[in-house]
Design brief:
The protein is mainly β. Helix content is 10%, strand content 25%. The protein has two helices and 15 strands. The strands form seven sheets. Strands 7-8-9 form a three-stranded antiparallel sheet, with no helix packed on it. The protein is elongated, with a radius of gyration of 41 Å. Keywords: Disulfide bond.
Length: 281
């Protein structure tokens, strides 16, 4: 039909009058038959939709489905005819679970949603005004599980209780306190927004560094990364210079005892004999 109404200018449409319909009546087309034996179009006339047949005729939906199965290479396109017929049945008050009778038309939903063939067209959300009436239209799709509703109509996030969305998009209940990027935050019920203030850290205990080479430094607290703590840190450049010379027959040995910072020097005897300040094997 669109080919009869070309628009020269999208902003200012200039649609010519369609040509006159031919007066001669064409021959009625032959009843099409399904092109492929594996077509799912036959479901439209089977018992799956039988309850709807007296209210909505499946004939035109069947013809469209057969046309698609004959002319469209993607077999999943046939699902649209079944979907359209199921939607027409839903508006007539008949809800049909038809997708589980097919393999290619399965209703896949994300893990936090459930599939419903006749869910509310306006999904309940925290933004709803209880005094306003909602439409009774139904539609198929992915919906929040029982006992949950959308945080708002745009977020797509299901929540059990209404509240706020934190800066990372995680739903928070009213008056819930949480920490975000070293800030103490609360979901304020009066403003329905998240209010944050810098986290207050307790005064860190002072570190007692008595050994040589140790200095007091403040660094991130491993228990709470948002706060700092005083710790003793070994810095070798603060160690005293010690040039130890050993007597003949001894060799200097350098080691750092456990729990200490600076190296200590000792003299260990060599496996030699000493006579008149001369070493002999």
């Amino acid at each position: 039909m669109a080919d009869y109404w070309p628009a020269d200018d999208i902003i200012k449409p200039n649609c010519p009058t369609p040509p006159v319909v031919p007066t001669n009546v064409p021959e009625p087309p032959l009843q099409p038959t399904p092109c492929k034996p594996d077509s799912i179009c036959d479901l439209l006339k089977r018992s799956v939709f039988a309850e709807c047949h007296p209210l909505v005729s499946p004939d035109n939906f069947y013809k469209g489905c057969v046309f698609d199965s004959c002319h469209v290479s993607n077999p999943a396109v046939e699902c649209t005819s079944l979907q359209a017929y199921a939607a027409a049945c839903a508006q007539a008050g008949i809800c049909i679970h038809w997708r589980n009778h097919t393999k290619m038309c399965a209703g896949d939903c994300p893990s936090d949603k459930v599939y419903m063939p006749c869910g509310p067209a306006e999904q309940p959300s925290c933004e709803d005004n209880p005094n306003e009436s909602t439409t009774q239209f139904t539609t198929e799709g992915c919906f929040c599980p029982d006992g949950m509703k959308l945080f708002n109509k745009d977020s797509g996030i299901c929540v059990e209780k209404c509240g706020c969305l934190d800066p990372e998009g995680i739903p928070r209940e009213f008056n819930e306190r949480f920490e975000y990027k070293c800030q103490d935050c609360i979901c304020d019920e009066s403003t329905k927004t998240v209010i944050c203030k810098p986290k207050t850290c307790p005064e860190p205990p002072s570190a007692n560094c008595t050994g040589p080479g140790f200095v007091v430094v403040n660094q991130t607290n491993p228990v709470d990364p948002c706060c700092f703590a005083y710790v003793c840190q070994c810095q070798l450049n603060n160690c005293p210079q010690n040039s130890l010379s050993c007597p003949i027959g001894y060799r200097p040995v350098i080691s750092v005892p456990e729990g200490k910072c600076c190296p200590e020097h000792t003299c260990d005897p060599k496996r030699v004999c000493v006579h008149k300040n001369v070493e002999y094997e």
